[in-house]
Amino acid sequence: MGPVLYQMVRNGRAFSGHERHCCFLNLGQGKFADVSSVSGFDFPDDGRAVAQCDWDFDGDLDLWIANRTGPQVRFLRNDLETPNHYLSLRLEGKTCNRDAIGARVEVTLQDPRAKWETSTLSKTLRAGEGFLAQSSKWIHFGLGSAAEIDKVVVRWPGGAEETFDGLQVDRHYHVVEHSGKAQQWMPPQRKGLLEPSERSHLKSMERARVVSPAPLPLPLLDFETMDGQTGRLEQIYSDGPVLVNLWASWCRPCLQELKELAERGAELREAGVTVVALSVDRLDTEKAAEPDSAFELLKTVGYTGVAGWATDALVEKLQLVTQHLFDLHQPMSVPTSLLIDPAGQLAVLYRGPVSVDQLLADVSQLPDIASSPTALPFAGRWRTRRQPLSPIDIAWKLVDEGYLDESTEYIASNKALLEESPNLHRLLLRVGNHLLERGDAETAVTYYRNAMNLHADYRDAQNNLAWVLSTNPEESIRNGKEAIRLMTKVVNENPAPAFSQLDTLAAAFAEDNQFEKAIATAKQALEIAKSGGQQEFAKKIEGRMQLYQSGQAYRDK
Fold first, then answer.
1. What's the fold here for domain 392-549?
2. What DSSP designation does 152 have?
3. What distances in angstroms separate CA 214 from CA 10, 235, 386, 427, one per listed residue?
4. pTM surpassing 0.85?
5. Closest by alpha carbon to 98, among 122, 124, 125?
6. Residue pLDDT, tens place only, 333-357
7. DSSP for 51-117?
8. Domain residue spans in the chain?
9. Which CATH fold would you assign to the domain 85-185?
């Protein structure tokens, strides 16, 4: 459930998004009125938390609010003039906890309308106020029109009860446990009070330039040339930096951008930059023009460089790359461009049109643009050299999205970077499983062994390797003795071995013609599977056990 919720947030959703802070006025008799707007509380924020405190010590409560969206913190100062009175107490425990958390305070007031009538207000000092918030530990009482306090009773967390007399309204008091007296506290004069600000709304940016935090290797990226052949970007950027430009015939900013790239093509060639303009028209048939018309548009704007069609696979792979760079996952749009250095690493991502001046400035800083002052949206300089990004997330997603050949090539090409990841052994196991499903058991065995070389006690890799060595139809791959050695170690080191591990050990015994041990081990696996409610798996074990009883080993088809 956790990964699903996390992915929802990365896709721009929230557990409870677009929830403004609200302010309700108590009308009495269980009724409230929404006064968010007139109170100045109705900001277009995705609200989360609110904390109360008398920030300026003027006797009324001010508010700090926190949001999921920016600004993440707001301060709302209460400047409402009122003739009402207040009392503020700061408790300090001696025999109980020092903050006196859990103390209950009762303030008895004399009703101004009738001297012989009294009313009592009570509050409890709590650690935590609502969601993700901690209000001030000053206990604040709004006294209304009452101008006299009869007494204050404090019931301390330890059970002791203490009464304090002589307190006056509109005062702050420091109350220490067992002191018998409330000491008046004089608020300090705050300097530099926060000034009110005007509400502002951030405008959506049509352009964004994002420098990769560190060199990020790209997977194999193929496109379709104008004459229907397969073009490989790696064959182009091996000669120098490449700007991959995704455009569409129905996108006016795209055509304006291509026109500028064409007009200043000589400057780009002098800088060693190759522009590859890839149309996405075939990916959106509702908006796309006819193929010939799309490339006629290139001639219209004067573009004569490398051109072709973006394929679904290319866009999906680039989407994986952008998701690796941004925690917020959004679909790619046009125009989008990527500056790739000669090593095949993403240097800069441009959302929206990129100017040639900006492009040339970025190219001049390759290959160390990630460490340049312009890599960040604020002033500063790097104190250390940036380390390469681990590409394991890209490799993992390539596997999950079905790009198995690309993932194996990516792993082989970026071995040194991937070895820095603590989860590489899990990635190798996953690739091995997909290779096995495809029928390439020999290569799967290699991946299982590589996973075990990184993590000697990786039981899942040991189990899967032993299964292939015991059950594969190819005699050249099978090795029952090695499978027995692997699984005996796994089972003996596990106080409660899984039925799948015992099932593999049974298959290994059968491959080595030790059928009595195979039957006995399969029975153990069968009992555990049935007791765990794994009826489907139990049937498979029963079928294999029948083979062992007839003196046959199991072969995985």
1. 1.25.40
2. E
3. 21, 23, 6, 22
4. no
5. 125
6. 999 999 999 999 999 999 999 999 9
7. EEE-TT-SSS-EEEEEESSSSSEEEE--------EEEEEEEE-SSS-TT-TT-EEEEEEE-TT-TT-
8. 17-76, 85-185, 208-375, 392-549
9. Immunoglobulin-like (2.60.40)
